[in-house]
Prior knowledge:
six-stranded mixed sheet, 12 strands, disordered N terminus
Amino acid sequence: MAETGGGTNHAKKASGHLAGKPEAVISVDEVTRQAQRMAEGVTPEQVAKLALNAPYVKIENLRAGYGKMEILHDFNLQVSKKQSLCLIGPNGAGKSTVLHSIFGFTNIFSGSIVVGDGDDRRDITAMSASEKLKNVGIAYILQDKSIFPAMTVEENLWMGGYLMEEPAQAKEAAEKIFEKYPRLAERRTHTAGVLSGGERRLLEISRALIMEPEILLVDEPSIGLEPRFIDMVFDILDELQNVEGKTIIMVEQNAKKGLEFADIGYVLVSGEIAIAGPGDELLENPEVGRLFLGG
């Protein structure tokens, strides 16, 4: 997000998103209230149309959360194979909970998650995270600081193949990564803790690729990165989607960057979809811009 203009002390104390004027800061609660007022009542049919009526990942009427607390309420999502979807919204809207639910980190109270197309469709709702990674091809790229800093770059990549039958398979997959990303190859024997922010994020993405997944769940890829590294990370994700054919579902705090990248955008509010549309259309939506894009 962009920084506020004047009033340094005020800006430091305030928390929330920018409103129309650079000096105006509103709380997360107020963003949520305003976003709820602009909610369009997105229907399952609209969600299906954005996925070209050919879903590869489909969430239907999902109620999920943590412990006994429900975060997602009758939530629907669809994305087709080789598409990308970006989830934006205020803090606490349930964005990461969507990724957690797909991967198996939440309690699911009702609803379903189905992956695949044609005769290869599978209900994965009750599967464990390990089963989803190994047998379905779903990988989760966590937020920053998920590497093992005391291990070498090479050892971190091997850890990405911990579910493989033989260690040699992980080592072979790591060599393919080094061929693909010379920047990592040059640092294979370095401990991961000495890498730059951009290199760490590249390592996190690369480790998720060891199991050769078809679906990437990407949580805040730009968080904590300098602008030049943000561009690098999104270039990598673009190649993974448009050259290698991966399906990408992303949560991104940098809403502008995320919507520029993604085919589809959802604005989440209080565990429900308030607005859904093509990413470029949400970028042009003045209310989305006012609340989430810094102007």
